[in-house]
Design goal:
Helix content: 55-70%
Distance between the termini: 76 Å
Number of strands: 2
Order of helices and strands: HHEEHHH
Strand order of the largest sheet: 1-2
Oligomer: single chain
Length: about 130
């Protein structure tokens, strides 16, 4: 299929597909006229790329998942290199959650103090 058809089927743009190609994530063949031709399997790869990007993975982190699919696996996350990326990314997310939990607690405390202060002022100045 041509780049426009792949883009339409994947729900993305030809420009995005060229970006993926620049990063070595998808591999078109070239016709004699220079047009990009994609196998049906590239749709699966593009869907995997888009799902990983939506989950916050960077383009560099996606390559092991694509390589895993290209190796004939049914999913991109089952290979050792992909597992290593998943572990690292999960540790990053856990760190973000810890930070956000601390921020939430501080905000709750500040809000509680602000409400108490306002209520105390209202009692003193009826």
């Amino acid at each position: 299929m041509l780049i426009g058809e792949l883009a339409e089927r994947a729900g993305t743009s030809p420009r995005t597909l060229r970006y993926y190609e620049e990063h070595g994530l998808i591999r078109p063949r070239r016709d004699a006229n220079g047009y990009r031709q994609y196998d049906d399997g590239e749709l699966r790869v593009v869907n995997e790329i888009r799902a990983l990007l939506a989950d916050g993975f960077g383009v560099d982190d996606i390559k092991p998942f694509v390589d895993c699919l290209r190796a004939g696996n049914t999913a991109g996350h089952v290979c050792p290199d992909s597992v290593a990326v998943l572990r690292r990314r999960l540790a990053e997310v856990d760190g973000y959650l810890e930070q956000l939990t601390g921020v939430r607690q501080r905000l709750r405390e500040q809000l509680s103090q602000a409400i108490e202060h306002r209520e105390a002022r209202c009692l003193l100045n009826p």
